[in-house]
Structure formats: C-alpha cells, structure tokens
C-alpha cells in the first residue's frame, strides 16, 4: 500500500471542541483568526471539523468550508456543519471560484505534497485580494534537528521507511503522520518560496511542541523548546501569516 493511500485511509485529525484543550499551534492560529472579520473561510485538512468550527467562531464567519482526504473525516466534518469536500489536493484544483475566500488555513499540509507550487497557486487563486492565508509546517532546521544531525542521528519529521521510525535519538510511539512527509522547509526556503508565488508575508511566529516519553529528557527539551520558539528559525513548527497582494 502506498504511503499516501495508507495516510488517507487511516488518519483523521481529531481536535478538541474546546479552545482550552488546544496545543500551542492551534491556539496561536485561533488568536490570529480572531483579529479578523471574515465572511467565508476554508480549512484545508479539516479532519473531523472540530477545529474548523472554532476558526469560524473566532472570526465570526458566516460559512466555513473544509478540504479533507479522508472519507471518514469528510463525514465527521459535515456533521459538524462544515461544508467539506473529499479531495486529494496534491496536484488537484480546488473546487471553488476565483477570489472566493476571505481567509484560508492549512495546518501541517504542505509538507505532505509533491506539487507544492500548484497547492500555493490554488490557495492564491481562491483568496480574495487582500485575503489572509495562515499556514503551519514543521521546521527542518528545528534546534533539536540541528543537534541530532551534529551527532549523526536522523532529523525528526524525516523517515527512511514508510513503515518504521528508525535512526532518531528517541523514537516516539505515534509518528505515523511524519511517514508521509515529502517536502522539507527551513524558514529561509519557505519565505523565498512563498514570495515567488506573490504572497506578502505579514508575520512569522514560532511554535513549540510538548514532547512526552522519557521524563528527564523530554522535560528538558520542552523547557528549551518553549524558550527558543521565540526564534521561528529554531522553533519546532513555523506559523506564517500571508496576504494576497
């Protein structure tokens, strides 16, 4: 079974229904959306739709649409009131008119795609002039990855196998989604890529991750990661706020 097909059949992103239960990335994205008044928004990779609904409430949107590769995810999102479509966006055209959305969110999506250019072009096309695109993606140059490479270990988020997570300092128990990572970005490369596609970069924010596992090791890493997240180039995840010119 190909990784992309395996991912579609087995993975559905489940998110809490209450904002207080969200992780650092989700809270920061929600805060950004709360600064705007949008009529129509799109959540690419909407999963079960719980988070899509929170985004809708944050910006007082009238309509929220979702794109999801998982059939189960589309069903759950629709039950949550999200106008969800089942689409593999890798190389596909989004089923919306030009200048359709006020805001678009894509959380941890671009790293799973072969055709990143088509993806970003489609987001740009469907955004209204002046519309806002918020995206997040793992940082290849995360400070932990820099240390791992220094000692010859595999960077996190990158796997040599579609079935096994090997070669890392510590192997997390649930790293299934990272098996499907295809593209890898540093902050500099991501900025250059987005500028080539005519997006104006409004803000760049670092996001930290809370690791679990080995008590002493992960607690130390968590403290350092929280401190270094103020430097997006070193953070675990990069959050970018973009504007259609």
TrEMBL record:
Molecular function GO labels: S-adenosylmethionine-dependent methyltransferase activity
PANTHER family xrefs: TRANS-ACONITATE 2-METHYLTRANSFERASE-RELATED
Pfam families: Methyltransf_11
Domain Methyltransferase type: 42-135
Protein name: Methyltransferase type 11 domain-containing protein
